[in-house]
Design brief:
Two copies of one chain form a homodimer. The first copy, chain A, is an alpha+beta fold and about 210 residues long. The first copy, chain A, has helices spanning about 15-25, 65, 115-130, 145-150, 175-185, 195-205; strands at about 25-35, 35-45, 45, 50-60, 70-85, 100-105, 110, 155-160, 165-170. Chain A is built from six helices and nine strands; from the N terminus they run αββββαβββααββαα. A five-stranded antiparallel beta sheet of chain A has the order 2-1-5-6-9. A four-stranded antiparallel beta sheet of chain A has the order 3-4-8-7, sandwiched between helices.
Amino acid sequence: MYQPKHQLFQFNIDFNPYQFMQKYSFATLISSYQGEIEINQIPFVIDQDNDQLLGHLARTNPHWQHLTQADDVKVFFNGPDAYISPNWYQQPKQNVPTWNYVSLEVSGKVSLMSDQELIDQLAQLSQIHESTLETPWTIDLLEPKQLDRMCQAIVGIKISIDRINSKAKLSQNKSVAELKHLIEGLASQTESDNSQQIRHWMQTQNGC
Amino acid sequence: MYQPKHQLFQFNIDFNPYQFMQKYSFATLISSYQGEIEINQIPFVIDQDNDQLLGHLARTNPHWQHLTQADDVKVFFNGPDAYISPNWYQQPKQNVPTWNYVSLEVSGKVSLMSDQELIDQLAQLSQIHESTLETPWTIDLLEPKQLDRMCQAIVGIKISIDRINSKAKLSQNKSVAELKHLIEGLASQTESDNSQQIRHWMQTQNGC
């Protein structure tokens, strides 16, 4: 991901990349192998040392077979994004349309999980996503035979978090006065959840 | 993107891939060049013959320099996604967690735009995104000097739509009775816009 020389499109110092990955955990797994790009979307969890991304693919999905020998592997976490109209600035004739967004990419190497690591990952995954539900479903509700069948049908992958690259394009190159106008403009887009989320990111990251 | 042998995770016959690309037009441009993956997010428009994706990058972003010689180029359009709890099925002990989502990838070759093509793309882009606003901003509000400065700072790209690959993972492998339970479950996630969008996709694609 490109970061312009002015380096303004970065998150502020309070930004926690691991929290971002947790929040936008249904991510895009991208690899290049013999020149070809392969893409699949899967939910990830982070290991307790913040060293690895943990996920799984269907065993019938050929993607996992190329991952350990891939030339490059990236996991892309998409945050929200929103169109910014020049009309929202104080001087619409002095400005051009743009797009604000937040996203993060991890580069790393892939290895395959053991059977126990896979079960642990599945337990952690359901624990996280069931935590906000009224009566959380847990993996131990499954009969051993079913759990075994499920594990046979998938392949667990671990991706080392070798490099994190993030981008917060949130109009940091504009004055505080202009930022307030943009925030008002986004607030007027009441039907767009994305615009409201970007508004929130602009407020917390730019302190306004 | 992996499509399992049962081929159920496809959109129904009413699906229009070009409408999907228009709706989720802020997409992820991914290329592999000399083994390395490069990723940037940009808004795309489709040319009038549905032959090409049109976009632009900052001239200072080195990504455009590799695009015409890339080994592979894909544009990934992310639709919404949502966690599906086993608790929502009639038999929670017979089911496992899953994730539903809709997305689409385009594979193609990249060429660079002429100055006029770039201006046309910018005009089309603002026309589309300003169309829902009260007083649409148009590119001709800019003074010729400003427009010229803007065009100097960016590089227009055209990507041939050689192959479209889409995925609609919307529980099509479940019975209509179970689908109704899942739709209720998603409806209960009132704070998640993503869950409501997936619910809508499940209803329109599965006809329930």
